[in-house]
Automatic annotation (TrEMBL):
Gene3D superfamilies registered for this protein in UniProt: 3.30.450.180, lambda repressor-like DNA-binding domains
Name of this protein: HTH cro/C1-type domain-containing protein
Highest taxon of the lineage: Bacteria
Region described as Disordered: spans on this chain: 1-20
SMART domains hit by this protein: HTH_XRE (SM00530)
Pfam families in the record: HTH_31 (PF13560), MLTR_LBD (PF17765)
HTH cro/C1-type domain span: 33-105
Length: 278
């Protein structure tokens, strides 16, 4: 039996449709989603015999419960939109039982307000995403959840001395920003940019704050950089909005770019950053 937590849920969020007379609760949306996907499955799809004649399409709730290792009562309550808080493991079992696609599984976990344990490990980066970085004319790079540079193009290697150049041994953007003297000299208005970078990282990393690599990164920087420690303890949070980025390059001189950050749908958790001519 999969573990689940029948805890009482606080005041539910609401998802309102334009023109709707009453708000639709998140639990009701979750219930409708589960019911629709249960009704789309035939017994043969999940290796069950057809059994006796069925009055409604798809699997029965009892069959989904059996496949997921859950109580049929809890499956019923979920479909009815009752405030039931299932554990991440139970949601994963439901997703597997209902044969949900990656996008459907992600939607299920978002609705339930849980983090998918499948997303806790390192990302497998699709080759097309990696290749796209090298097809961009200006400086471009791809970051993982801890903001380690996974790949970057030649223009980025030329620009980012102290981080992406051949001489640098540090590929983590945060560590380079606070521990690399060449990168600090390169970045225009470094104190402001470094503080904003920490605020952006706090917003980006919150969903993975309990991951061991994330904790190790933050704890290491807290110990090694007083400037990072002060910025982190300030509790500032900002969106990664892009905008003008200035650099003082020792060989190329003063440079100005417009930064654009994209989140590839094919690689959740990763960021593709491009610097466009200003």
């Amino acid at each position: 039996m999969v573990e689940f937590a029948p805890d009482t849920v606080t005041q539910p969020d609401t998802l309102s449709d334009a023109g709707a007379a009453t708000p639709v609760t998140r639990e009701a949306v979750l219930g409708a989603f589960l019911r629709a996907h249960r009704e789309r499955l035939a017994p043969a799809d999940v290796g069950l015999p057809p059994g006796r004649r069925r009055r409604t399409p798809g699997l029965r709730r009892e069959e989904v419960a059996q496949l997921a290792g859950l109580s049929a009562t809890w499956v019923t309550w979920l479909e009815q939109g009752r405030p039931v808080a299932l554990s991440a493991r139970a949601l994963a079992s439901l997703a597997a039982a209902l044969r949900l696609s990656r996008a459907e599984r992600a939607y299920l976990f978002e609705l339930a307000g849980r983090r998918d344990p499948q997303q806790a490990g390192s990302e497998a980066v699709p080759p097309a995403v990696m290749a796209s970085v090298h097809g961009i004319a200006g400086p471009a790079y791809l970051l993982d959840r801890q903001w380690n540079a996974l790949t970057w193009n030649a223009a980025a290697a030329e620009l980012f001395i102290g981080w992406l150049d051949e001489e640098s041994q540090e590929r983590n953007l945060l560590r380079a920003m606070f521990l690399s003297t060449p990168l600090q000299a390169l970045v225009e208005d470094w104190p402001h940019r470094a503080g904003r970078l920490v605020a952006e990282f706090r917003a980006h990393s919150i969903r993975h704050a309990d991951d061991a690599p994330m904790r190790a990164l933050i704890e290491g920087l807290m110990a090694e950089s007083p400037a990072f420690r002060a910025a982190w303890l300030s509790q500032d949070v900002e969106d990664r909005e892009g905008g003008r980025r200035g650099f003082h390059h020792p060989a190329l001189g003063a440079l100005q770019f417009e930064q654009l950050t994209l989140w590839p749908a094919a690689a959740p958790g990763l960021m593709l950053v491009m610097l466009l001519p200003a």
